[in-house]
Write a structure and sequence with these properties.
CATH superfamily: Lipoprotein like domain
Number of strands: 5
Number of domains: 1
CATH class: Alpha Beta
Order of helices and strands: HEHEEEEH
Number of helices: 3
Length: about 170
Amino acid sequence: MLSKARFIMLSVLLGIGTAGCGFHLRGAVDLPERAKAVYLEGIDRGQPFGQEFSELLSFAGGRVTSQRAEATSVVHVIRAVQERRQLSLSKAGKANAFNLLYRIEYEITTPKGEVLMPRQELEISREYFNDQRFPLGQGEQEGLMRAEMEREAAQTLLRRVRYAVKSASASKT
């Protein structure tokens, strides 16, 4: 068993080691000034993707504005689609493997309309097996997978906003 002094010393060394190696908590993003006030257009902020994007931006020190004029950058979501495709059938002819897709088509601009990142598509997919012997919980499993896909899409889009703004700032200097 560790003594209190050894435990404190080990904790301090561990803290120094992780701080010195450049470790950051997952999701910690340093936002440039032009990405701290984002106007989200084309998708309702009350939808799961909009909420997730707003939360991630808030954790990074930014915010989603309700007015385009207040924004320093604009994310225009042209299309956001969820799809579900059958991958295989059981002996009884029922679908037992599915592919879930979450696809977002977007563009990043300044509030004045200057394109920072031209129209692009982001696609997140997951596959899952639907065991017909255990039907309970299949709907919940799919719902959880869809929520995770939207979370991943929001994280990816935030990183792309950060990149687009940094690239635009670097090209002007």
